[in-house]
Write a structure and sequence with these properties.
Layout: E1 9-14, H1 21-30, E2 34-39, H2 40-45, E3 55-58, H3 72-81, H4 83-92, E4 95-99, H5 101-109, H6 116-119, E5 130-133, E6 141-149, E7 170-175, E8 179-182, H7 185-193, E9 197-201, E10 214-218, E11 224-227, H8 256-269
Parallel strand pairs: 1-2, 1-3, 3-4, 4-11
Antiparallel strand pairs: 5-8, 6-7, 6-9, 9-10, 10-11
Helix pairs in contact: 3-5
Length: about 270
């Protein structure tokens, strides 16, 4: 492994209906990467473009109007046309993030819960074992929630965030299909055992009814990460709903949202991808 002399390259994939792509590009840029915004159609036409990126982002929104189900059309296009390229990107060490609609997309592609994407010699999309489904109350939820970061997780993106106070470690959510479920209890047990549950909703804030209070998971390498909350909407302290009540000393450093992107940028900067 060797460090690089130039800023790592990040790509944020968009399509009709995505609406958080600009925020994610800004997050990567503030974290020190050279970020590009790329339409999915262009990537399908020239899949080799993905080989030039160290970081990949799936933004939130309502891709293709969330026709059929949330993220379904976007995910099927990637799964059928680009899976081998994403498999190769993960295998060579790229860091990947998905937020909200991006989490829904990544689970349907088969990038999470992972394992197969790294070890499979002949990359074919795996059978799905996790999903994001309707919120338990059947309603769209738009609010800031308290989070708990798992200090034992290998997740690159959440490193150093476990010790933050409950008031600081909040993230905004905005989804109608954010309830995390697994195919069987064994799948959930495996995620827990491997430390793949990187971030949870606080006990009082599991408003969508997610199994195990799961807000976000990573793959076994810790480099592929997705969550229903929006870290890209918490890049500055002024974004915090109670910013003026936070101690001045707290607001001197980076926000948890920006820190997630910084962690990944620093990781790929120090590793030959």
């Amino acid at each position: 492994m060797s460090s690089r002399n130039t800023a790592p390259r990040a790509v944020v994939l968009r399509a009709a209906g995505t609406n958080c792509d600009g925020e994610m590009v800004r997050a990567f840029t503030l974290a020190g990467a050279r970020a590009d915004l790329l339409h999915l159609d262009r990537l399908v036409a020239d899949p080799a473009q993905l080989d030039g990126y160290d970081l990949i982002g799936f933004p939130g929104g309502f891709s293709y109007g969330d026709d059929i189900a949330s993220g379904r059309v976007f995910a099927l296009r990637v799964r059928e046309r680009l899976y081998a390229r994403f498999h190769a990107a993960v295998k060579r060490g790229a860091c990947v993030i998905g937020a909200c609609n991006g989490f829904q997309i990544m689970t349907q592609i088969g990038l999470l819960p992972g394992g197969e994407t790294v070890t499979d010699a002949a990359p074919t999309p795996p059978e799905r074992s996790i999903a994001l489904t309707d919120n338990i109350n059947g309603r769209f939820i738009d609010r800031w929630l308290h989070m708990e970061v798992n200090p034992a997780s290998p997740c690159v993106w959440t490193q150093g965030l476990a010790g933050l106070s409950e008031q600081v470690m909040m993230l905004p959510v905005a989804h109608g299909e954010g309830r995390f479920v697994t195919k069987s209890p064994d799948v959930m047990a495996d995620l827990e055992r491997r430390g793949q549950v990187a971030i949870r909703y606080a006990e009082t804030d599991n408003v969508n009814g997610s199994q195990g209070r799961v807000a976000g998971i990573c793959d076994p390498t810790g480099r592929v990460f997705a969550l229903m909350p929006h870290p890209e909407r918490y890049l500055e302290w002024a974004n915090h709903p109670f910013a003026t009540s936070l101690p001045q000393q707290t607001r001197q450093g980076e926000t948890p949202g920006l820190r997630m992107f910084r962690n990944a940028v620093e990781h790929v900067s120090n590793v030959a991808v």
